[in-house]
Fold these 2 entries.
Entry 1:
Amino acid sequence: MFSDIIGFETKQFKRIKKIINDIDISYNETDRLQIVKFLNFDVDIEKLALRSKELTDYFFGKTILLYTPLYISNYCINGCLYCGFSALNKIKRKKLSLNDVKKEIISIKEKGFDTILILTGEDRRNSSLEYILKVIEIAKKYFSEILIEIYPLEEYEYRKLVNNGITGVTLYQETYDKKFYDRIHKFGPKKNFNYRLDAVERAINAGVKEVNIGPLLGLNKNYDFDVYMTVIHGQYIQNNYPEVELAISYPRIQSSVSKIKTYPVKDIDFAKIIFITRLFLNRVGINISTREPQYMRDNLIGLGITKMSAEAKTTVGGHAKNFYDAKQFEINDNRNLVDIIKVLKLKNYRPEFTNWVKI
Ligand code: SF4
């Protein structure tokens, strides 16, 4: 499990930071030293972008997968200091009835999507596994690909979901800095760092086809550490579980919903992070969400990203009808699917709607 080696990898990072000034930049190297060097020094960003583009086109062709998230519940028992759904916040809590789930799903399907990401806040009592299984039961009648972003589960629980039709699991570690993680998660099961970290491997052992990992950029003052560890975590998954499709997301925190000081990552650094990830993880899917503004999303098409969310709502429901107001975060790209497809086609990229087709 990755939790067995994270201590060693953290020491490696600290050792590299001490000698960083003595390391030469080589665009051909693929070792740990280079990841840290690229993250910390001015590099030729155009050269990096070009290499990222070459690798992305080579491994993925000119395609971008489009999907949309559906929030089915905003109940959460965790005290995360940076999230709109935190139990620390007094917001209206709601979960969708199965009837409303069906309306949302039909509305999403009618827009043209074939991949859906089902999300909940983390609360086993209000969003029980049985409830989630019933939602999946409805979703699988309409979608080829069902991904979930819920609380971490035991392997046998993931197996139940796999047997019921999910293809993938998204689970963000937020930060790989264990001490900092403990400080920003005030209470709740999410405080258990290792249990969360190893959940993607439990999901893989249970048979999911794809996993999506990532840090929340801007939480940790030292984003270089979290990006480094994400890449190392990605390499670990690819080496140990070659049968699984791995994707990485780098959501950037929005200061407006955070109760703690944030450290915004600049656009140029965000782009550099995507290029570096491609350089060191050639085959990884890279996802960009609607947290990012239109100009970032459009400009990064073809330069490393392979998946984009579209028409996202971060309220519970919100596709068929705007049910409730509390949002997990703000959307910065409100274009509809048709407009996003137009941009992709203008750039000679083909929109894809699923990775997996049932046969
Ligand atoms: S980040 Fe997830 S676990 Fe934390 S408060 Fe938000 S929804 Fe709950």
Entry 2:
Amino acid sequence: MLDSNNIAEAIRTFGGIEVSENDDYPKYLCTTCHNFLQNALAFRKSAQETDTLLRQTTILDSSEESDEVDDADHNLEDEESDY
Ligand SMILES: [Zn+2]
């Protein structure tokens, strides 16, 4: 799942630090941290997929240009069956 490029990218993203395969620092990641990264990647994937679904719902709601808040609530409930 994680090749060396993805690991470096994940460490940059989730660790908030700069790492490179070509720097002079250690090249190894312990199993615990590797698992952390995999869980973080799984979380990001899940969050982005959910965000995409939510924004699709929002776009549908706004395209109706309705001022009624109740309509948005009903549409969200209808979309839940798709999960
Ligand atoms: Zn570690």
